[in-house]
Structures are given as structure tokens and as C-alpha cells.
Amino acid sequence: MKNFMALISGILFSLGLGLSGMMDPKKVLGFLDVTRTWDPSLAFVMGGALVITVVTFRFILKRKAPVCEQNFALPTAKDITSRLVIGSALFGIGWGLAGLCPGPAIANIFTGNVQMILFVAIMVVSMIITEKLVD
Amino acid sequence: MTISSEFTPLLSLSGGIVIGLATTLFLLFLGKIAGISGIVRGLLTGKKQDRSWRSFFIGGMVLGGLLISFLKPELTAKVYEFDTFKLIAAALFVGVGTTLGSGCTSGHGICGLSRFSKRSIVATITFMAFGMLTVFVMGA
User: Fold this and answer.
1) What is the mean pLDDT of each run of 10 residues along chain B (140 residues)?
2) With 0-12 CB in 10 A as exposed, 13-18 as middle and 19+ as buried, what is B88?
3) Partner-chain residue, chosen from A80, A97, A130, that has the shortest CB–CB distance to B96
């Protein structure tokens, strides 16, 4: 049941990414290009998702436990650290360079563009190395 | 190079709603935040017992992406040509940045904001600003 729901969420997540335009780097760069040919569409992606989740998360988190687990496992960190800010800034630079963030990169991996495999491979290796170095 | 993409508010909104439903199911059934960078990283560095659901989720994402590329290839990066140097640099920045910053567009931008997490609000404003700044400097 747990794995099945993970699979369903993953499929839905990618369908949403595709439909919204997030899987198309052109669209993402158009969204980030505020001073020239700005395409604000992607603001509607976050808007659409948040309209749903702000409501559903509130109700779900009133439950004692999720359906397939004993406990919720939510992030516990509260402090705004320099690591959080520097990491997010670096991520933003990478996002702006190619128009890819992790979700759309994974969703695009086997769609026929070999460059996507390269992107995901380098992203994953740099994640592992960074984690080993900082922890 | 100027890139013009069409304004698609309704399509983007409906895609966003589907993403919202996916993260809702994930939280309801698995009790976790659907943050893609964390799920991917944890597959390789996290606990052994978490490997199967992580694999199923990522497998689902790959399947969903394939489905889109069959139905509507123009919505994907199928024919997009990246500058290889930029692509490699981008992948490094995204990998290092999401690890240090503990999240990406999904974990901070959607799940974190839904929980009104201060860290996620700061992270989202920061990566949006730096993304825009990078496109401003480097071009789209």
C-alpha cells in the first residue's frame, strides 16, 4: 500500500509538472526572465498547488498518524541558518542557468533528451558528495 | 537570445492543482513532505528501509514524465538543446545548493510554504531571487 501510494503520487506529481509547464526549461527561463519577456505562468503553478495544500495539509496534520505509517515525519529545523540561505542561493543560480530544478529533471530523464541523463547524474553525485562533506 | 514562451495561466494552474493533489496524497499516506531533492538524495544516502518507497516515488515520476512525453512532447525538454557547459554547471549548483539548503522548489516552495515554515519562506524567496538574477545576468 505504501509503495503503491508512493508510485501514484510520483506519477501524479510528474503529470502536474508536465501540464503546468515546469518540465519545459524554456518556460521556466521565461518565468525567471522578469526584466525582458516575462512569462508569469509558473506563478500559477505554485498558486494552484498552494490553494490545495494549504487546506489539505491543515486537515491531514490534525490526524494522529498518516495512513501507512505510525508517525508523521516532518522537517524539524526552525532556525534560519547561513547554510539554508547560501544553499538556496546556489540552487537558484543553478535553476536560472538551465531552467531545471530536481523534479522536472527527474521527470524528463527518459523523455529522449540525453542531456537530461547527464544533468541528473551530475546533480545526484554532487548531492551525495555535498552530504558526505557537510555531515 | 530572447526566449518567448506563451502565457498559459489556466494550464499552469491546473498543473499546480495536480501537483497539490500529489503532495496531499503523499502526506496523507506516507506522512512525509514530497520534496524531490530530499527523496532522491535519501535514496542513495538514507536509511535502507526507506529505499523502496523512495524508488517507487521516483519510478512514478519517471513514468509520469514518459507519459507526458508521449502525449504532449512539446511540454517537455525532449527537443530542448542545452549549452553543455551551462548544463553541467547548473547540475552542480542544483545538487550542492539543494543539499545545503535542505530542499528545492517542491520541498520548500510547495510543502514548506503550505506549512507556513519560516525556513521555507526564506529559502523560496532566496532561490527565486537568485534564479531571476542569474537569468538577468546570463540571459534566458
Assistant:
1) 74 97 98 96 93 97 97 94 97 98 96 96 98 95
2) middle
3) A130
